[in-house]
Amino acid sequence: MGTPAPHLCKTLRVQLGCAAPQASRHDPYPRSEAVTTLKVLVVEDDARIADLIAKNLEAAGYECHQAADGGRALAEFARLKPALVVLDLGLAGMDGLEVTRRIRKDSDVPILMVTARSGEGDKLLGLELGADDYVTKPFSTGELTARVRALLRRSSGTLADRILEIGALRVDPARRAVEREGEPVPLTTLEFDLLYFLASRPGRVFSREALMEQVWGSDRVVDDRSIDSLVSRVRRKLEKNPSNPSYLQTVWGAGYRFAEPSP
Q1: pLDDT tens across 15-52, in order?
Q2: Cβ distance 148 to 62 under 8 Å?
Q3: Which sequence spans correspond to the domains of the chain?
Q4: CATH 1.10.10.10 fits 23-156, yes or no
């Protein structure tokens, strides 16, 4: 059998039998740009897919570890303390949604979901539970690598260093830390990005489309429910009364804004 044509190794379905691409001067994600000490935990019960993901991320310079089920994933997460988790939602037994829920009890580590095309409901629930982004099977390994890089870049802190102090709220972009009345408010990467973007522009109304582009990027197709879910998560963590928010306010028919609470 001949060697598959290069373009056939672009998607997950055909790459299962192809070697991971090697970085070159034409590679848009060269090895030298990655931080080799960063650990990525790949949670996938299909060994071929797990190996494919791991090989591509290792070629990009990351240290990859694998887990084939939810219980092992949680054990490896506690042991490794990875910088990011690539998590298949369709795990047998303890599924990816439950793994996400348990990780989010104690950690705001970036989580990249891997979902099936038929898993629209699971995707939205995963975002609701605190996952940061997703790729849909069959996916391009280049896209997955780009998503990993983007999440790690955001989680390492690339925002301006201006600390925001609004009423009882303090938002520190350098530390990616939020405090309310001196108490820490744990936020995920996406939650923090949304809050900082709105809080640094108080009073301005932004449409859902504008917020999607700001938080997920212009090349991401995300529906309105995803941004509504993200806002709801931030409100539950930040607001004393999430049903009557003082900070993240809805402007009906227009979008959302950040407003300083009344004295």
Answers
A1: 444 444 444 333 433 443 433 468 999 999 999 999 99
A2: yes
A3: 23-156, 164-258
A4: no
